[in-house]
């Protein structure tokens, strides 16, 4: 998905943030 790379990266960043928040919570 070369044309969705940017969106995928953003989604991964949000996912990582959520996972980190869940772990710290």
Automatic annotation (TrEMBL):
<dbReference type="InterPro" id="IPR029055">
    <property type="entry name" value="Ntn_hydrolases_N"/>
</dbReference>
<protein>
    <recommendedName>
        <fullName>Proteasome endopeptidase complex</fullName>
    </recommendedName>
</protein>
